Amino acid sequence: MGKEKICIALDVDSPDKALELTRQLAPWVGVFKIGSQLFTRAGPEIVRTIVEEGAEVFLDLKYHDIPNTVVSAAREALQLGVKMFNVHCLGGGQMMRTLVKEIHRESEQIGQPMPLLLGVTVLTSLSDQELKTDLLIPLSLENYVIHLSRLAQKAGMGGVVCSPREISPIRQTCGPDFKLVTPGIRPAWAARHDQTRITTPGQALCAGSDYIVIGRPIIEARDPEEAVRRLLLELTTSTCNFTL
Question: Which numeric CATH code is attached to 3-236?
C-alpha cells in the first residue's frame, strides 16, 4: 500500500493556493480532489492545469440529475482527463447504467482512459438519527449504504464513496474488486470538524479502503508538507505495516 492511496481534498477558494498545494504535496500523495468550492471558483481550467502538472484528479461534484444531464456532464469530465468522478447513487440504477454505458463508449471513441466511476452513498456528515428523522429512510444507515453500494455495483459502477465505518460490510457484500473511496478520515492528532462517521487513516486502510480522502488536517496545517509526512509516519507505524 503506497502513497497512491492518499487523496488530498483541495477545499480552498483560490486556484493559486490549489496549485501551490498540488506542487508541494505531489511527491507524497497520489490523487488530488477538486470539489464544489474550488470548481465553482476556478472552473474546469483548474482541473486542466492540475492534470497538466502531472497529478491525478478526483472530480468530486456529485452529479445528481436525469440520466441525459448526468451523462453530458460526465463527458466533460472525461475530456478533462480526470482519474475518477462521482454521481449520487440516489439518481437511481437507470441513471448509473446509462452513465457507465455512454462513458465507456465515449472513452473508446476519443482514446481517453476510462475514469473510475463512483457512486456517492450517504454523506459522512449524516447520522443514523438524521437518516430516520430528516430523510424518513426506514433502514439503518449501514443497511442503506449497503443497498446503495449494491445498486451501484449492479449498474456497472467501479466503486462507491462511503464512510470508513461501512468499509467492512460493503466489502463483504460487493467483493474485493469494488473500489471504496473514504472521506471522513482524521489522523489521530486531528480535530473531528463536522464529520460524524470518521476513523483514522490506518484504520481505514486496514479495513480495506482503496483511497482515503483527507482535507483540513493537511491543507489547513501551518506546514502542509510536514502534516503529510506526519500522516505517512502514522501509517507506517500502524499495525498493518504499510509499505509507502
Answer: 3.20.20.70
